[in-house]
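Team,

Forwarding the record for the chain on the shared tracking sheet. I've put the sequence and predicted structure together so nobody has to dig through attachments.
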Amino acid sequence: MKLADTIKDWWQSFEKSPKSAWVFSIIWLAFVCWLAFLWNLGRIGLIDETEPLFAEAARQMIVRGDWITPYFNEVTRFDKPPLVYWLMAIGYKLIGVNEWAVRLPSALAASAIAILCFFTLRYFGFATPAAAQTHQLRRTQRQLWLSAWLGVALVALNAHTIAWSRLGVSDMLLSGCMGTSLLCFFWGYAEEGKKTNALFFLPNRWYLGFYILSALAVLTKGPVGIVLPGLIIVTFLLYVGKLREVLQEIRLIGGGLIFLAVCLPWYILVTIKNGEAFLNSFFGYHNFDRFTSVVNNHSAPWYFYFLIVLALFAPWSIYLPLAITRLRFWQRSFWTQQPRRAHLSLFALFWFVDIFVFFTISVTKLPSYVLPLIPAAAILVALVWSEELSRDSQCNWAENSFLKINYGLLISASLNIFLLFLLAMVSLQIPSLVGSDAAMENLSELIQRSGVYLRGGIIWAIAGIVSLLFLRKRASWRWIIGANLVGFIAFTIFFISPGYALMDATRQLPLRQLSEAVTQVRQPGERLMMVGFKKPSVVFYTQQSVGFFWTCDRSATSFLQNLVNTSPDDSTVLIIGQPDDIEETGLQPQDYRVLEEKAPYQLIRVATRRALHYCLRDNNAN
């Protein structure tokens, strides 16, 4: 009862002074975004193999003065459109070429979607359609505040969002642009229900925001930036029977022209400059082929995303079945009669399901593909808990409140406790569960010595025990959500952040140290090779092109032959590799000089002709 009394007094202070609720909201938003997205953002180096590709392509735009065609390692890179490169390059100009500038676009995109989710839930996060009719009541206002506070926490504090908001790649930027565009659409949809004014050829300001942000999503990752929002909106409007009505409201011609004005110029310019090379690579390989066939061996079974959402949105994911079924989406006639402002939960359902189904159908599968559905999942779960936490209109926390228990939520909470103990057990088993990584020797032993896995196990075990104690008391079991939230905050501070640092120190730091050594010992005109591994971070940190070769194959021979033909007879080449990989090239210790050694890599210098000799010998032998 003490917890209930404390919360009752705390809430009544907010109701007496609404400004204090906004002050708390600002503090809560700042804390959540700082912890999840900004804390130690640039503390660790770039993570191979994807992040340095984006970072270096952005740097090359500044070096070359070419903001149309992305390059990496002297080769065009048409994997993604340019928005993420542009933002990184602007960051380089403002705060220097560093990890902060690389990751800031992702962190800001994540913050934007979290903040807009907060405001959307604050004004439209009604737990039930009936609540939209009584939005002036204290209970409804309480529930709206709770849904907003919980929603921003759930959007930010999950492994999926945290991981991608701290990587300098395009996935979080896409999720941010797509998520904010969809929320802008919903604001416009709800405001049109109040007959807001707009210029004769332009939609209202929120629909206008939808068009602009969708165009930025297309500049982030291509057609998927408008295909998915379009699919979500059309299926939602068909369900509520407002497709024709809203198509008139959104002013397709005027809005479409703005959309094209934002995203089309780059596509025209890059096509003029690169022709079929761009069209085949970007639209063919990186869009159509990824959807219809397996690309880069990224295949997975049909249930892949069930596991991804369950694991990476844990522990909140355990409430998704309840959050979906409580909407009774099969009662279409009921929903078509509800006011627009009451449709946020239904809109979030279509948002979640459409993205989930779309990428389940896609043949190529990656965990990051379903990142854009996380805000919708957070909205759905936040509405479940905000309804429960505000259910007693007079803040009556008497013992007989057990008679009013939502048994569906109680079952989900029980499963939540089971999941917490499962997470504790998995955390404690991490040293024996981690796979091998040739770039990190003795990884299991390093994790065991660090003690990070123990922290994770203890945190989740404590959260499970506290939740179990809450569940045993009729008046307090609903505060299980608080145990989860505190547990995840502690997990972020004491497990995720130290875990990142540990992985960086063992996997990436040696490469950065060798890259720094290269910049110090490299002679004019001397080229750099890496054998046995492809680590793009070396290109970024040395700021020079690198020849990547798995073995002394024909491509390596061609590379060395070209160096011999264009360099003096006494030219040398720098090589980074592990001792075993260097040995496989045929080079003997007397053939080269070890300049630097950072386990598990060596930096050596060898005469170019000597390196070519051994490559030719290996090729002839094969």
